[in-house]
Amino acid sequence: MIRRLFWVGVGVTITVVVIRRGRRVVARYTPEAMAQRAEDLGRDVSRRSATFVATFREEFGAARAAREAELVAALLAEGQTHPDDVEPRPRHGRHAAAGSAGAAAEAATRADEDELGYSF
After folding, report:
1. Residues 43-86: pLDDT tens digits?
2. pTM over 0.85
3. Which DSSP string do the residues of the chain spell out, in sequence order?
């Protein structure tokens, strides 16, 4: 008799545990819960992506500046001033009096150089 009562108690306990866990599983996979999980995942991915992009931009900018400094140092002759520190010289002679056609062409070239960020 005690054995039967023990096994009935075990069966009731297992049934209660299975029902409670089953309800949790069902609630977890309802459309609302799935939508909430997807939204949370999207927010997490967005946050991680923004952090990655910001870190990448900072590290890339620092590496680019360091490499540019290395290249400028390697290309400059000993004692030569940095190109950014040099003032442009005024033009003299035949280039200064080239006329309006030459001045217009030079102005267009300067505009292109300013837009491109380099000159020859």
Report:
1. 999 999 999 999 999 999 999 999 999 998 888 877 777 777 77
2. no
3. -HHHHHHHHHHHHHHHHHHHHHHHHHHHTSHHHHHHHHHHHHHHHHHHHHHHHHHHHHHHHHHHHHHHHHHHHHHSPTTPPPGGGPPPPPP-GGGTT--HHHHHHHHHHHHHHHHHT---
